[in-house]
Amino acid sequence: MTSFIGRSTEIETAAGLLARHRLVTLTGPGGAGKTRLAGEVAADQPDQYLDGVWWVDLATVSESTAVAATIADAVGAPAVGGRLSTLCAHLTTWRSLLCLDNAEHLLDGVASTVEAVLRGCPQIAVLVTSREPLGVPGEAVLGVPPLSDDDALSLFVDRARLMQPSFTLDESNEAAIRSIAAHLDGIPLALELAAAWVRTLPPQQVEAALDDRFSLLVRGPRGAQRRQRTLAGSIDWSHALLDEIDRVVFRRLAVFAGTFGLAAARALCAGGTVTAAEVLPALGRLVDKSLVVAEERGGESRYRLLETIRAYAAARLVEAEDHAALRERHLAWYLRFVEAAEADREVDADRWRRVLHIEYDNLRSALEWGVTADEPRAGRELAASLAWLWHLDRRGREGIDFLHRAIDRAPNERSRLQARLMTGLALVADTAGPLDVEYDAAARAVELAAEIGDEGLRALGLNLLAVGCFYTDLDEAWRLCEQAHVAARAGRNTFVLGGARALQAIILHLRDRHAEAEAIIDATVQQCLQHHRGVLSTVLTYQAEGALAGGDPARGLDLAAQALLVAEPLADHLRVGLARSVLAQIKALTGDLVGAAELIDPVLRLVEGVEDEVFVPGLHYAVAMLSMRRGDPQAAIAWLQRAAASTDRGVATWLAGRALPRLGAALAAAGRRDDAVAVLGRAIDVARRLQLPGPLAEAYAVQAELAAAEPDGLTRAVELHHAALTIRVDHDLQAAQPDSLEALARIGAAIRPTPDDVRVLYAAGSARAKSGLPCGTDQQRAYDSTAADLRRALGEPAFARAAAEGARLTLDQGVEYARRARGRRGRPNTGWSSLTPTELQVVRLITEGLTNPQIAARLFMSRGTVKTHLSHIFTKLGTANRTELAAAAIDRRVPTTRRSPAG
Fold first, then answer.
1. DSSP letters along 655-685, please?
2. What are the phi and psi torsion angles at 99 (to 5°)?
């Protein structure tokens, strides 16, 4: 906000060093102008660094171990795992300049972090400001010299005119100003501090005062550089010239970390000899004297102390007052601040987040003090109050740590506060580490909330319990959502009213009951979620998947794009990554491989090297799909194996259930048949346990292709493809039905070609064209080969006639043709050998005593389909009812444990 004076030589030199070296450190004493010089150098660099110039202020970082995390936050890397490895993975392909300001108090942490970044990210350059070099190999060091005499004079005059616009340089004061510059060794900060007094003192008196003050500072700490002593003297002198009110306010401002607002300054600086009304004038005087920096952030005036000055003020605070008492007041004020802001969360969640983000440095500082205090209640209250922020923020891992520490301060307490902390822990884990979700914490929260009679808190706990088992037990998750919804009505918990129904809708989408899922997301639920971007974005992604599965990729693209738009302000890896992944999958399936890659590449850069620590559901499938479409099954296998191994408390998740069939297909494509067989067997077990129709149909289809490659395996392949088709029809999975039709036409042509095979094949092709879901390269090759085989077998006239008829068929008509052709390939019309594998399954389940609805649930088909199968079975076997059928099955010794069509 002030003009930059001089330094043309230093700017040119630093720029030249950056052109030849990847690490340049600007060294010099505090106040030498390192930061301003670095800013000027960086401002001239954008053309050289296509991915941006990134500024990282390390002044508020107190531990070397936090350096990597601070840089990662600044550049938007995910807050997961080892922050250094995450940072390197994030920057590995970037061409950027990192400017690390104020590194001197964190030399070890900065040195190790910079060295790792330079080794792992070949296009990253680093510009550092520090009082001493980092000592990293390859480091180019530029000592920032004092300003030249003329530049020092110009700086003093410029800053003096800010204080007193009528100030002029003339013969009467030039000598005094040059003397001041010489006394202060041309250090910019010292000159600014001296110039701040020209409204009160003429330069001649400033010069005299400096002489007196420095005479006291000649014998400073042994070994300290003269410029350090000079700067300390200038600050000490400035402090000595303050009146008592300004001194008190100045030293009390040291309690703040980062920036602070006027309200906080009034609350913490007033007291004793200082009234609240006196704080603002004092703050203005401190800004005038360059002891406090004023800036604008988020539409309000913010203030901060430069690092050196804050350290000086903190020392004065310890000398003059009870530092611990002020820290307690700081904690209490920010606790009230967060609690007051909570009212905005349901009204304007984005504004609420912005307000808390601006104060986050102070919130973190207050928490650190509070959770370690002898009386930790206020710190525990603050941790509980920040759970929603961490839930919606990439700092979730840090939040989990704070919440654990807060809970551990009173592990056996049975209070509402403990219930809030437990609930908060599960809430934050929901997004920061869902597969490590604190299920026990949520269970304890529900128990405590019930004990104290807080239905709203109990509703949230139940909802989080549902999330805790959502990945492995969808039925239990559904049941808990029902309980949460009832409790939410009683406790008037708006979020859970929408959140519980949203989770149920997601469960229905996972089970391919898409129409039922859409019915749940009514206007009431949407209203409940309008202020909860995370849940709303997630629901939109599953709606997008449902639209795609139903054969409407255009709507799927629109919904996924909406999900990304809703999620992006959250800037977290989970929701943004999920939305990008689903949008990329749909783009890939519509043939836009370039667009899909552009969407997914930023997510891949974020998680590279920490894939096992970052949770982005959908990422594995999107990358695998792209890989398969590009003809690279090995790459797909690597990604799908991670998802296929997904477990929660040792039980396979639905993430694994979705990944396993695709992994089986990739293994088969790579020629690893035995591995594919084993994976598909597991896929079927998981899909049946979790009732995942789509993945089960996928597994059947891949097994069918493996069977078709075996001697005498074509009949079994037909039955497996029909089993897959039945599931896809029963659940209206129109996007996948053309796959089944093309496969059945291909195998039918291999057994005994008929015109129906041509009709089915061309009906599938027509359906693809209408839906906008084209074949992949391998699929198209197989389609063309099947068409050529049928043309040769049937002759051109018959083929052309059937192809034209098929192209006019709807998808449903094509399915009917495929089913009509079933059984025409040599299967007997009656007797046990005439039963299809699906019909044999129905027989076995009847002998086990299952009802039609139970059979429908077990086999993922409608009750009407079960009745149709029974009718066919009765006709083929000559039985009249279920009792006769069961008796006949027992006489024939049909085993209840016999493998299904998939086996």
1. HHHHHHHHHHHHHHHTT-HHHHHHHHHHHHH
2. -110, 110
pTM of the model: 0.75
CA distance 249 to 266: 9
Q: Could you tell me which residue, 145 or 745, shows the higher pLDDT?
A: 745
From first CA to last CA, the distance across the chain in angstroms is 73
Q: Residue 900 pLDDT more than 60?
A: no
Whether 85 and 610 have beta carbons less than 8 Å apart is answered as yes
Pairwise CA distance, residues 81 & 451, whole Å: 36
pLDDT digits 0-9 by tens, 452-469:
999 999 999 999 999 988
628 close to 776: Cβ distance less than 8 angstroms: yes
Whole-angstrom distance, CA of residue 722 vs CA of residue 822 = 8
Lowest mean pLDDT among 343-352, 445-454, 701-710: 343-352
- pLDDT, mean of residues 773-784: 92
- State how far the alpha carbon of 636 is from the alpha carbons of 646, 690, 723, 870, in Å: 16, 24, 26, 41
pLDDT at 436: 61
Which residues, other chains included, contact 161 with Cβ-Cβ below 8 Å and sequence gap of 6+?
A: 167
The whole-chain average pLDDT of the chain stands at 87
C-alpha 798/C-alpha 671 separation (Å) is 36
Query: Which segments of 33-186 are extended strands (E)?
Result: 53-57, 96-101, 124-130, 140-143
- Mean pLDDT to the nearest integer, 578-596: 95
Q: Average pLDDT for residues 493-499, to the nearest whole number?
A: 88
Contacts of 792 (CB under 8 A, 6+ apart): none
Mean pLDDT of 45-74: 89
Cα(622)–Cα(639) distance, integer angstroms: 9
**pLDDT number for residue 899:** 36
Query: Could you tell me the two tokens for 886?
Result: 């069961």
Distance CA 116, CA 118 (A): 6
Tell how many helices (H) and how many strands (E) occur in the chain.
46, 9
Three-state DSSP class for residue 241? coil
Edge to edge, the sheet with strand 140-143 lists 53-57, 96-101, 124-130, 23-27, 140-143
Q: Mind listing the pLDDT tens digit for each residue in 235-250?
A: 776 787 789 999 999 9
Find the farthest-apart pair of alpha carbons in the chain and give their distance in angstroms, rounded: 123
- Amino acid code (one letter) for 361: D
Residue 274 sits at φ, ψ, to 5 deg, of -115, 125
Tens digit of each residue's pLDDT (9 = 90 or more) over 366-425:
999 999 999 999 999 999 999 999 988 778 889 999 999 999 999 999 999 999 999 999
Residues 726, 734: Cα–Cα separation, whole Å:
11
DSSP state letter for 100: E
**Range list of H helices, 289-395:** 307-320, 323-341, 349-358, 360-372, 377-385, 387-391
Question: Does an H or E element contain 646, and which?
Answer: none
DSSP lists the bridge partners of residue 56 as 100
Q: Is the per-residue pLDDT at 439 higher than 80?
A: no
The answer to whether residues 753 and 737 touch, using CB atoms and an 8 Å cutoff, is no
For residue 147, the 8-state DSSP code is P
Side chain identity, residue 186: G
Give the pairing type, strands 23-27 and 140-143. Answer: parallel
Tracing tokens 């009951």 back to the chain, one arrives at: 513
C-alpha dist (Å) from residue 847 to 639, 652, 859, 864? 42, 29, 15, 19
- C-alpha distances out from residue 18 to 54, 98, 133, 140, 146, Å: 15, 12, 16, 9, 21
How large is the average pLDDT for residues 631-637? 94
DSSP string, 491-551: HT-HHHHHHHHHHHHHHHHHTT-HHHHHHHS-HHHHHHHTT-HHHHHHHHHHHHHHHHHTT
